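Comment thread on ticket #2218

A.B. wrote:
> Attaching the input chain for the structure job we discussed in standup.
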Amino acid sequence: MSSFVTSLGSTSMSPGSLDRIAGLDTLRTIAIFHVILAHGAMMFMPQFSGVLGKIVWLLIATNFGVPLFFVLSGFLITRQLAAAIPIGTFYRNRFAKIYPMYLVSVLVFGLLHAIDDPFIWGLHILGMQNISDAVSSRISGHLWSLAVEMQFYVLVPFLFMWAYRVLTSFLVAFLVVSSFVAHALWLLASPAAQTVRLAAILDVYQFSSFNFIALVLGAWLYRIYSNNLIFPAAKTLGILAVIGMPIICLLVVPGLRVDEVDLRKNSSLLAMLVLVSLPPIASVSLVYFSLRKNWFQSPRWRPIAAWVAAISYQWYLWHPLILMGFAKIMEYNPDFKRLVGEHPWTSLAIYGGLSMALSSIAYRWLEKPAYRWLSGAAVGRPSCGKAVSRSDAMT
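C.D. wrote:
> Ran it. Output below, let me know if you need it in another format.
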């Protein structure tokens, strides 16, 4: 390995067994709270008034929730494969954990949006809808990330057989830079029209070719972790990413709507690409230091983090249902709409509480029985802090 990553020797960052890693439960909690806050704030706080509103806007605009999920997923899936889990068992568990509830959500949101196009239904059922934002948003825009995850599950056992063994720091850096340059050239080659480039940047954001880099970064991070290596550049890269994201937001993004950015300018287009490229880098640094420094290990906090991590997949799947309910009531009830507008923080809290309650019900009565039936595994209670060890970050 190059000096970019060096030997650590004896350290608290030891790989250990496949028991739960409390710090990663906390990072999953941070990621899902960021997603819930971002989607809710865009409905209830579109103007972001006041100092607190501006802070929330900056937190949301950095858009690190889903990339953090991807990095965690790459780490945890690689950890499982490194433990020599049989490939058949891996696929069976991944299918049992992800696909049944994913399919239920596709059916629910598809029916609610009255989708009658067989092509749209087919792509979503196959987990291929992230080929275009125009396709993925037809049923529900948030499901694109599950398509990325499922495609990664199909490929990762075969990639692990050879790629993980040569996943050096130089190769990872080369992949990151190459991915950025390739997507930048693709974006710059698009016609300098706002609508065309808006569609292009949204497509890049959810392309597997772009998001697989975050998953690979997570796999590489597991190699560092399991071999007791240190990552000297983690602090520098993390600081640069954390500083760079809000600066780009302040300079380029006037609100939370990417369509408000003048994408006809090449500088603005590239700035948006940088903005969506920095969160995975920040996430790698955050995960690295969480493991090395044993962050988030409070005995009082660990059961809470384990519970939120356990329901996080269901929370991600079903929170848009609550937002749709709010939107529908506001459409037909002007008084309710006015009340929501006058009390955005209260509305945000109610939405968060209702979506959390719905996700808890879905976890208890749908996800757990389906997983137990399809995989034959026992699923622990999340409230006790010993829920089943999960190899992906969204479940």
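A.B. wrote:
> Thanks. Noting for the ticket: The chain is about 70% helix and 0% strand.
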